[in-house]
Each structure stands twice: as C-alpha cells, then as structure tokens.
Amino acid sequence: MRAWISRRTPLQVALLLGALAAGVGVAKYGVGVFPPWVYLYDLSVNWQDPSSAPLMSPPADYLQVNFVAAYAAGILRLTSAQAYFLFHLCLALAAIVLPFIMPAVRESKATSRIVFIVVAGGPVLAMLMMWANGYDAVTVLGLVLAACSRSLWLSALGWFIATLNHPPLGVIAFAVWLPVAYLTASHRHISRQAMRFILAAAAVIAGYVINAQLMSAWGGATSRYTWFIGQAQSTILDAYWSSMPMAIFSSIGIAWLVLLAPSIRRLRVAKVLIVEVVLITLLEPLFIQDVSRAIALSVVAALLTIKVSLERLVPPETVPGLWRSYGIAAAIVPIPLVFSGAITYTGWGGFQHLGHSLQAPPGYTLKG
User: I need a surface site. Which of 105, 135, 232, 351 has the fewest CB within 10 A?
Assistant: First the structure.
C-alpha cells in the first residue's frame, strides 16, 4: 500500500482518501434519516412563503433557523421525498470529501492522511451518515471552507454559510477557531492574517443578522434554549453526568490520539485546543440536547486548522508516524453520539428502516 501511494500524485492520494472516508462512513454508520426531517421538508415545499408551512408551528418552528438546505431544495424543485433525501445525501457526501480537495490539503500526501484521521475517525462523519438528510451538511461545508481555504474571501464565505445555517454554532465555532488560527498563522504575513480575522468576524455577524431578519420575516422561531430549559432540571443533570465520559471521547474521536501524541501535545496550539475541547464538552451539555453534534461542530474548524498546518509545526517524520499509528483506528472504530444522555449508534439499521423513515406523519401528504 505504501509503495502504491508513493507512486500516486498528491491530488490522486487526496481524492482516494476522500472517497475512502465516504466509504468508511457508509460502512461504519450506514445511511439513516434525520428524525424530524419532514418539518424541514415542509419548509422546502413552502419555500416561497415559509410562514405558511403547516408543520412549521411552535415548537417545531425552531428548525426554521437551519433553513439553508431545505430552502435550496425548494428552489431547485426537489420536493418529492426521494429527491429531497438524495439532495441532502449528496450534500453530506460533499461535506465529507470537500476537505480533501481543498488546495491546502490536496497538495500534500501527509496532510491528506492527517485529515483522513480527523474525518474518518471523528463524530462529524457519524452525524452526516446517521442523519443524512439533516441540516448539518451545510454547516460542515461552511466550516471546512472557513478552516481550509487559503483565499480570505472564500474563508469568509464559509463562515457566512455556517452561521447563516446555524447561528449559535457559527458564533461558538468562530470563537474556538480564532485563537487556534492565530497560533498557527505565519507571522511573516501579519497584515494578511489580520484581514482574515476581520473578514471572518464580519461574515459571522452578517450570517447571524441575516438569519435573524429572515426568522422575523417568516414569523419568528422558537428558541431551542427556551425549550431545553423548560425540561426538569434533574433530567438535564442526569443526562449530563451519565453521558459525560462518552461526550468527551466523541467530541473529536480518534483525533484525541493525534492531539495527545507526545510530539503534538507539546505544541502551544495543541494545548489551547485541548483546553477548548474540554471546556466546550463540560459546558455545552448544560444548554443543549444534541450534545455530540454541537460539540463536534463547535470545534471542527479549529481542529482542521491545526491538522492543515501540522506539517510546518512538527518535524517532517512526525506526520507519517501518526498515519501508521492511527490511520487504521480511524477507519474501523465507530464513534457513537450522545443525545440527551443516551448513546446513539444506528449502525446498518438505517438501511433497514430507510423506506419507513421517509414516510409522512398522519394527515400530511408528501409531494411527488
């Protein structure tokens, strides 16, 4: 295998690993359906006037905030249940492969291998596959552009897309990414890096404000936090303590092994990210229900930023050693997700229930 890879160009290796990461996702997690998908589907059917969507009434209207993919499906007239699902599945696969085709990754075989460990061995892959027609793919696409783009404007566009689709997580992900981006930046180009941070901050603000304006125009949206704190405090705390060990592991999955490798954990930026991941893992479950998804999305931009920069932060022989040590683990170890204190892992059951899961609720008719 090593000899075969050595004869391939960096681009060929990157494309191979991207396809392999997608295949690993299907093999480990199957393909499942986002449970409340029909609410977003209803938004796509009524994209011209989202306020008229019959299923988008409180408390389900909180999903309006994550409107981007559903709205795009409506504009593209992908409003049969099958077309809607396949459109979102393509977005999910694109989100898996995109890191590997970014110039900062595809130009180096070593970087492609590190990114494979992060993607194939992380929780983002699990949620993209287990909830294939959910709204996370758009957020991930935006965060990948934000973290891996050399272009300042493309990076800003990524922050805008991520925050427009998921405002709270866009803001948190930016706050986690900022110190990591600063510590990995080349200080020979201080003015360029300052401009990157300014444009990124402006893009996050723009995404947040535009989303808020749209929600106001569409009749508002129920706050997830308001719904969450309406539950019994004892239920929240029980879920917090029972899921915490798994929440810490599933926050970045196999990437923990890379960050804690002796040659990596000595880096100042690695120490900063470790502290951030631990703090996010300890704090976010007190305010959210879908723990692993929120934590993973909060830190993925920062994590990718470190991995893309790793070759110039450590000795050249370090990265190949990480691939030999953790590449197989990333490919074969599934990462269960934590949701409201419960461990979620559907496996191949998603295939089995795919047809049934794409049925409409009583009284609602699917298009097509």
Answer: 232
Please identify which residue in the block is written with the tokens 């994209």: 47
Q: What amino acid is encoded at 53 in this protein?
A: A
What letters, b where the CB count within 10 A reaches 16 and e where it falls short, cover 250-277? Answer: bbbbbbbbbbebebbeebebbebbbebb
* Preceding amide of 320 cis, omega within 30: no
Other C-beta atoms closer than 10 Å to the C-beta of 166 total 26
Cα 240 to Cα 301: distance, rounded to the nearest angstrom? 25
- Write out pLDDT tens, residues 176-206: 999 999 999 877 667 888 999 999 999 999 9
List the beta strands (DSSP E) in the chain. Answer: 337-339, 342-344
CA dist list (Å): 311 to 107, 152, 193: 12, 21, 19
Do residues 302 and 147 lie in contact, with contact meaning Cβ atoms separated by under 8 Å?
yes
d(CA 81, CA 79): 6
Count of helix runs (H) and strand runs (E) in the chain: 21, 2
- Strand, coil or helix: 342: strand
C-alpha triplet 181, 259, 303: angle, nearest 5°: 35
- Interval 287-297: pLDDT, tens: 777 788 889 99
Q: Mean of the per-residue pLDDT values for the chain?
A: 89
- Whole-angstrom distance, CA of residue 131 vs CA of residue 62: 18
* Domain-wise residue ranges, the chain: 10-357
